[in-house]
Please model this.
Amino acid sequence: MILPIRAYGDAVLRKQCEEIDEHYPELGALIENMYETMDASHGVGLAAPQIGLDIRLFVIDSSHMYDDKSQGKRMAFINAQMIDEFDQIWPYEEGCLSIPHIREDVKRNKTIRLKYQDADFKWHEEEFDGMTARVIQHEYDHIEGVLFIDHLTPLKRRLLKSKLTDISKGKVAVDYRMKFPRKK
Model:
């Protein structure tokens, strides 16, 4: 089932998410719905807050970021914990399904070490690099209540203010389902 993406301005996008355990209801179906939503929205990652849930869960498919699709990974991450970010810092233009039509260079480390649980709640500690690391860092930020625009300079954020306001008011056209913050 394709779920609506929460738009910039929704409070859930700023929450530090809670861990879940193997008793979380219908987790397998939720993960499949997240993959389906991500794919239908032409995304490379989707975090639970983007569909309105404040839980530590995200999915990625970084294969779209590589010429050789086999270099990418399609994975679900539960209760992820960033262990380390290292190697060179490199800028790359990022966007976000919750902040449509805005793309800006974000500086991130090339390599990360992440501890996480898979869909069977088995723990893993793994190193990721390149575009896969970048996608993971972006989605990990979501479960920490951080958006990619938070990595921009104050001047860049001020320049984007009117576009962000329009997004939060629903004044944006996209080809996927979105849910906008309630008007006060």
